[in-house]
Amino acid sequence: MRLLTTTILAAAALPAYAADPEFTVFDWAGFEEPSIFQAYIDQHGTGPTYAFYGDDDEAFQKVASGFRADVIHPCSQMVGKYRDAGLIEPWDTTRIPNYEQIEERFLDSEVFRDDEGVWFIPTDWGATAIAYNTETVPAEDVASLQVFTDAKYQGRTSLPDSSDDVWALAYLATGVTDWDDVSDDQFQAAADWLRQAHQNVMAYWSDPSEQAQLMASGAVDIAWSWNDGVVYLQADDYPVGFQREPVEGSSTFFCGYVNVKDAPGSEDKAYDFINAWLEPSAAKPLLDTIGYGHTSAEAMATIADEPAVAEGLADIDAPVLAQTPNDPALRQRQLAEFERIKAGF
To answer: Does Glycoprotein count among this protein's keywords (predicted)?
Structure first.
């Protein structure tokens, strides 16, 4: 079963999935799906070697501590941290023919590109919203994010073990839709709300397959979920809804690849891999297997009429907190406070 297989892969010792000894990708579990980068396999006869992580901060700590990979797949808010630590180098976009097809909204930050070059190739994006069991949770209960603090669901919820995602939830739940300018009072209100939500949490999920397993087993009825957790549940015929329009809103994020400085493997294969990802043909398998959208306008045009786009990626009639690069000091404060909350303080 896919869910179980992905969970095992995510938990295995690094590297978790060996193939090409000349090229290693450090990635989220689930993105080793060959159909997404089929052009790379067609060219080289095999996929990359994969190593997996469960959240962005974990990945950064491993790389900063000496773990060796050729490319890494952070989400947008982590790119600056890799840059500041001197762990990555710019991409040569003259070697990436479809770079110009990437939508401008995914590149609109000096963190991603500046006079020194292009530091980040955004490839995929998705939503974080409420996944729920449609047979046990009435639709009216998920009309508000306050469902995560509702005593009726004590021990029946799951949140991601990801500081960025839980703070996006907490800010939205307390009326903040832009985390670029958060006051001390707003931070404290969100922290207080998270402490309330913690009382209902059965488990913090570390990757989407774990979240899907928690729901499929009946242990959890409600989760703050990415698109892929919902796709996995749908594949197992689980009665799952994805509420992106609670009154307080939901979140969006986007991720992509950074080029590791002094990487051990083949630089040519790094570009072959990125070019495979940016092929328009990558959009359909990315949507089908993970539920994410593609950053290329040309690629998205190939899946515009897919029902999964309307369900999980279309514009919504509710506030949206976009997880874009924010103040590094605030992000570190959020991370430290989240660890305290999980520990019961």
So the answer is: no
